[in-house]
Amino acid sequence: MENTLIGYARCSTDKQDLTAQRRALMDLGVSENLIYTDHGLTGTNRLRPGLDQAIAAVRAGDTLVVPKLDRLARSVPDARAIASQLEAKGVKLALGASVYDPGDPMGKMFFNILATFAEFESDLIRMRTREGMAVARAKGKLRGKQPKLSEKQQTELKRMYETSEYSISDLAEVFSVSRPTIYRTLHRVGAKITP
Description:
Distance between the termini: 76 Å
Number of helices: 8
Shape: elongated
Oligomer: single chain
Largest sheet: 5 strands, mixed
């Protein structure tokens, strides 16, 4: 049985780059044309076309190579589902330089332990993010999306609207914003909007 190495790399946001993961996979012996990727998809999103292609590409005796477990799955059930797919196909899984056989009891146990830690790490990150946002909100530093117009522009917009010389469309054109933004701003500054 020939052992072909099939690589998989994933990054969570469009701003991240896959270059380091691709390089790591090639350093582990994966051919560049056998690396499947998902860009801008979180690990909790099971709809990952690149991963589906990688799993479809592996055959019995092959090895699916991933730089780190958190690039493959962020939850234990997802990791187990992927491991079951690989086991059914007779495929091994390499996390970095370590190879695990999902069909081997020791390999399965170790893989489950790693998946538990990856899920724990993901949960900790989410918890810290929520705590950080709550602290920022309490300090008044997390205010959401800021208005498109400055306070001075909002005051002028209200003044112009109340002269009845300008329509909503005219104001949108003058301030280079959309009609809904004009309505939101007038509402925010307490102007009486006439139908």
